[in-house]
Specification:
The chain is of the alpha/beta class and 504 residues long. It is 38% helix and 20% strand. The chain has 19 helices and 20 strands.
Length: 504
């Protein structure tokens, strides 16, 4: 067994003092950590750090890594220099050393035993480019050197590839499998459940693509507690990095002490995700751009309201594996607007004609408002307007027309492109502007509206309402709204805390 604590903190910095600071941070969360000595710029800096390690001897299981550039690391020295660094690390208190195949293949096993025999060897292979077709062959080759454990890290462009990698460790001991790449990021959270001996997480600096921070892996996703009995949920979209749905939903699971986890899935190929639902044990998932309409054709059944809208943002995976769809964006729109605008008889401009815009337009129509649709593609605007009994409005008319409210249902202004706005200041002729975007809390559009004295509504309100409804659909229980709301606003930082104080 490599370490009692299965989450391995990756300590990597370009200064010995920064490395030590990360080490101290990591000790508060785990007692297993990899020391990326190759990140220190010189051998002198490495020796300085190791001298302090030898002096203070913190209680933890340390894996010394000094990966050479030829293997994707940063160490510029020779193999001989690499071995000397690893030998010093073992003398300083590291129980394990990671030796990549690029170095071990050029050194007789007997010499490795002589130089590094005091430590336990982790034989590793890293594939940052194309994933090898015969992963089992890689594992067999690594075992031939008779190491104490092996590690295979490979870039995975799909969930299917990541699952094949993780299967190597299922039912085995002392095998670490590391799916790399943004698509495979949720698999890092599930790696321990699949049998990997460790799951790596950086304290601060990411050392491989698709890594999850130590804080998130331990506290947000609780990866060390995930088992085969854990209910898995998620959100699919592209992009997905901006989503705060994991903070929202996991906060609910944790406060209710439910054995469940909610993960973000970056999806390039919808079919790849859907095929992975069963092997990953996914019980339900949220749907965001650009799949809210595309998912409908893959459902086995659908809530009548969602079907009439033609947009689904919530899917339940039933016991028989069938997909059932709902739309909770509808609830979010009404929750955000009804307290501020008398919708019956009002005239509301909806920007956009995609999935989110459809939910807004249908919600407005059901509430008795006239939905006016303005979109980049006039034909799509006309089509949506007809579906809800509204009207299509050309952008050229906005500077002279007045609306009771304007709702932005486009992604323009969403993090990270926060400097953009879908409309200019002189086009905001209304009493209220509602932006569905919740990150940032105050988008460029809302800033322009405020300067004109127009009331504004952040997408946070809608995001919370639709997310709480999702949680209740999946669990069948009343959502802990206050806790879930606080988790999102805390994650939004300063703006979120201001919103929390303003509404408390």
């Amino acid at each position: 067994m490599i370490g009692k604590h299965k989450i391995c903190a990756v300590v990597a910095a370009d200064q010995p003092r920064s490395m030590w600071k990360q080490l101290e941070q990591a000790l508060r969360r785990t007692r297993t950590m990899e020391l990326r000595l190759d990140w220190l710029p010189t051998e002198k800096a490495i020796h300085q750090f190791l001298r302090r390690l030898a002096k203070e001897r913190p209680r933890a299981t340390f894996i010394a890594t000094c990966r050479r550039r030829q293997a994707g690391g940063r160490f510029r020295g020779s193999i001989a220099s690499q071995f000397l660094v690893l030998a010093q690390a073992l003398g300083a208190g590291c129980a394990w050393f990671d030796l990549e195949v690029e170095s071990s293949s050029q050194c007789p096993p007997e010499l490795i035993d002589v130089l590094l025999g005091e430590g336990r060897r982790l034989a590793s292979a890293h594939f940052f480019g194309r994933r090898p077709a015969k992963l089992q062959r890689v594992a067999t080759d690594l075992r031939q050197t008779r190491p104490d454990a092996i590690k295979i890290a490979a870039n995975c462009s799909s969930l299917a590839e990541g699952l094949r990698l993780l299967r190597l460790s299922r039912g085995k001991r002392n095998i670490i499998t590391v799916p790399m790449g943004d698509v495979a990021m949720p698999l890092r959270c599930l790696a321990l459940r699949e049998g990997s001996a460790l799951s790596y997480a950086p304290v601060e600096m990411a050392t491989a693509p698709g890594q999850v921070s130590l804080d998130d892996l331990k506290n947000l996703y609780r990866a060390n507690r995930i088992s085969r009995k854990t209910s898995v949920y998620g959100v699919i979209g592209n992009p997905i990095a901006h989503s705060l749905s994991p903070q929202l939903q996991n906060a609910g699971f944790q406060v209710r002490k439910m054995d469940a986890v909610y993960l973000p899935f970056l999806v390039h190929d919808l079919r790849d995700f859907l095929v992975a639902v069963k092997p990953l044990g996914i019980r339900g998932f949220s749907v965001t751009l650009p799949y809210k309409q595309k998912i409908v054709r893959h459902l086995d059944d659908c809530d009548p309201l969602a079907l009439s809208i033609g947009v689904v943002n919530t899917v339940v995976v039933r016991g028989d594996g069938k997909f059932y769809g709902y739309n909770t964006d509808y609830v979010g729109v009404l929750s955000a607007l009804q307290a501020r605008v008398a919708l019956t008889g009002s005239r509301v401009l909806v920007l956009g004609a995609g999935g989110a815009a459809r939910a807004v337009a249908f919600a407005l129509a059901q509430a008795g408002a006239l939905a006016c649709i303005c979109a980049r593609r006039p034909q799509e605007a006309e089509k949506l307007a007809r579906a809800v009994g509204g009207e299509a409005v050309a952008r050229s008319r906005l500077k002279t027309e007045f609306f009771d409210a304007i709702v932005n249902a486009t992604p323009i202004g969403m993090f990270p492109a926060v400097e953009h706005s879908p409309l200019k200041a002189h086009e905001l002729n209304c009493r209220l502007v509602f932006d569905l975007i919740y990150r940032p809390v105050r988008t460029k559009l809302l800033q322009l509206a405020s300067r004109r004295g127009i009331e504004t509504v952040s997408g946070v309100d809608m995001f919370l309402a639709q997310g709480l409804a999702q949680w209740e659909i999946w669990t069948g229980e009343r959502a802990p709204a206050a806790t879930m709301r606080k988790a999102v606003l805390d994650a939004l930082g300063t703006e979120g805390r201001k919103t929390l104080r303003a509404n408390s």
